[in-house]
Structure to design on (148 residues):
């Protein structure tokens, strides 16, 4: 005797709701990344150890979120530049873009001398990695909460 399966609803009717659920989950993950990115930007600007004579280095610290087929989101920049185009034109850092399957959360400098602040003097003035590492537990907890 063999078991038979009978569908109350055909599998094709599940595709639409599953796609909608997927989009809601990806949107929630994107929102968490944007929230934590803003927190990282604020922390980095507040905790930066250097003397910022012009204010450009501090206000040039920014976060960016890209991926999942959504529009890139860039944190508010100071008066030195505005928008995604300004970020890509003023920074010498490699730009890593998200894809439909990958979300990228970045924290970086817009000022050309940002890399010197991060790398010179034995990392005495580095702020990027320590800020990201300090915020990883918050990011992980929020993502676990979203995915429950």
């Amino acid at each position: 005797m063999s078991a038979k399966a009978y569908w109350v609803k055909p599998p094709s009717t599940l595709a639409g709701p599953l796609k909608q659920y997927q989009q809601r989950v990806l949107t929630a993950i994107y929102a968490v990344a944007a929230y934590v990115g803003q927190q990282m930007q604020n922390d980095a600007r507040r905790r930066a150890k250097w003397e910022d004579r012009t204010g450009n280095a501090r206000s040039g610290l920014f976060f960016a979120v890209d991926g999942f087929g959504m529009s890139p989101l860039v944190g508010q920049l100071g008066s030195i530049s505005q928008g995604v185009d300004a970020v890509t034109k003023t920074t010498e850092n490699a730009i890593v873009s998200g894809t439909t399957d990958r979300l990228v959360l970045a924290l970086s400098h817009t000022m050309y001398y940002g890399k010197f602040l991060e790398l010179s003097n034995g990392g005495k003035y580095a702020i990027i990695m320590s800020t990201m590492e300090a915020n990883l537990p918050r990011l992980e907890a929020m993502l676990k909460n979203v995915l429950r």
Summary: The CA atoms of residues 14 and 20 lie 10 Å apart. Residues 16-146 form one domain. The chain has five helices and three strands.
